[in-house]
Amino acid sequence: MITVNIYYSGTNGSARSFAEEMEKSGIADKIRAEKGNIRYEYFYPKNDPETVLLIDEWEDQAAIDLHHASPMMQTITELREKYKLSMKVQRYISDDLPESDKKFIVS
Q1: Residue 100 domain-assigned?
Q2: Which domain holds residue 65?
Q3: Tens-of-pLDDT digits for all 107 residues of the chain?
């Protein structure tokens, strides 16, 4: 699994407006329905009202590549430009949880 954290930042609430438009327009739901998408969720950092965190999880790189090649990406790009957002991206590849860590995890 590949997790991509995207921090969208703007001014005057533009990042939150972007996330709201992604949800209300149905774009976020279309992404969630794409083959290989595991999670597509927005979060609001408590200490930064001008930033929105998107946690985007995919089965593998092939699923991300298909998503990036979709016409939806142009729509997302246009919305980012509309709201004048900057982005910071972090990418993580999952591995198995070590036994030594399991005693600290409550499920």
Answers
A1: no
A2: 2-94
A3: 999 999 999 999 999 999 999 999 999 999 999 999 999 999 999 999 999 999 999 999 999 999 999 999 999 999 999 999 999 999 999 888 788 888 888 77
CA-closest candidate to residue 91, choices 1, 4, 28, 23: 4
Q: How many domains does the chain have?
A: 1
Whether 101 maps to a domain, the answer reads: no
> Does residue 53 form part of some domain?
yes
Radius of gyration, alpha carbons of the chain: 15
Say whether pTM exceeds 0.85: yes
The SS3 call for residue 46 is coil
- CATH for 8: 3.30.70.100
CA dist 2 → 9, 58, 90, 93 (Å) = 22, 5, 11, 5
